[in-house]
Write a structure and sequence with these properties.
The chain is of the alpha/beta class. It has six helices and nine strands. The longest helix is centred in the first third of the chain and has 18 residues.
Length: 259
């Protein structure tokens, strides 16, 4: 039976591994502690699609500033708990956001160090095989990235740490029409559901603050009227008689599909 359990996972999936039975539990959250490899524009796409068990990604994570001290501190704490824990196993939970890069690399490194000290270690990576992580670093050819990161001209209405609201350059389809953008480059609302939810959350907060009646719309792909491939939510104020038709219509009886 292992005396050290190390479980890596991604917080984004909201499916954390349960505590092992009768263990002392430690937790390391790497989400904001280490740079996420796919967020580094210098990293090749092929490497970004790998996991923390692949050599290139593992070496990248372990050489990130702060990684060595995280590993040293974890080994020290686990060793202390094993010494004072009355023979109970120790469980270490290690998470990053997606559970594919940082958490597996750090978990494996800690497990290796503990085995060298004589511990019987079981390392489990719960989300390492989830879909590849979208790369959110700024794109030079994206007009919204240029506004967010390069100071391109825009009428900014509100800012959050993870999003901002701007007025469309065209003026929009009604007075008060706004666009809510994530700061990271996410192509559309299907790319990363958590980012999509965050954009809608910020749009809802802003609409509540401003008051009135609204439509919130977003799109995926040019055939769905998405003009800029950077996720954006349209926050559109509505009033009686504004004459604005939504971008879809109900089929007439003649157009309805036969059963």
């Amino acid at each position: 039976m292992p005396d050290v359990y190390i479980d890596s996972f991604g917080a984004r999936w909201q499916d954390a591994p349960p505590p092992r039975y009768r263990t002392a539990v430690l937790h390391i959250n790497l989400t904001d502690a280490l740079l996420n490899p796919p967020d580094d524009p210098a990293l090749a796409d092929a490497v970004a699609r790998q996991t923390g068990q692949d050599t290139d990604v593992r070496d990248y994570v372990l050489h990130t500033p702060g990684a060595a001290s995280i590993i040293d501190d974890a080994v020290h704490e686990i060793t202390a708990l094993r010494t004072t824990g009355d023979g109970r196993p120790v469980q270490l939970l290690v998470n990053c956001w997606y559970g594919r890069h940082r958490a597996p690399a750090i978990a494996d490194a800690i497990g290796h160090r503990m085995r060298e000290s004589g511990a019987h270690v079981q390392v489990t990576h719960h989300h390492i095989n989830r879909p590849p992580v979208p790369r959110k670093h700024p794109r030079t050819n994206c007009p919204f990235c240029r506004i967010i990161h390069d100071g391109a001209p825009a009428m900014i209405v509100h800012e959050w740490t993870d999003a901002l609201a701007i007025m469309p350059r065209s003026g929009g389809c009604t007075k008060g029409h706004l666009l809510v953008l994530p700061r990271g480059h996410v192509p559309n609302f299907t790319t990363d559901p958590v980012v999509s939810a965050t954009v809608q959350l910020r749009a809802a907060e802003l609409a509540q603050q401003l008051g009135g009646q609204w439509n919130y719309l977003t799109s995926c792909g040019p055939d769905a009227t998405q003009s800029v491939p950077h996720l954006h939510g349209h926050l559109i104020p509505r009033t009686a008689g504004d004459g604005l038709a939504l971008p879809w219509t109900h089929p007439t009886r003649e157009q309805e599909p036969t059963r």
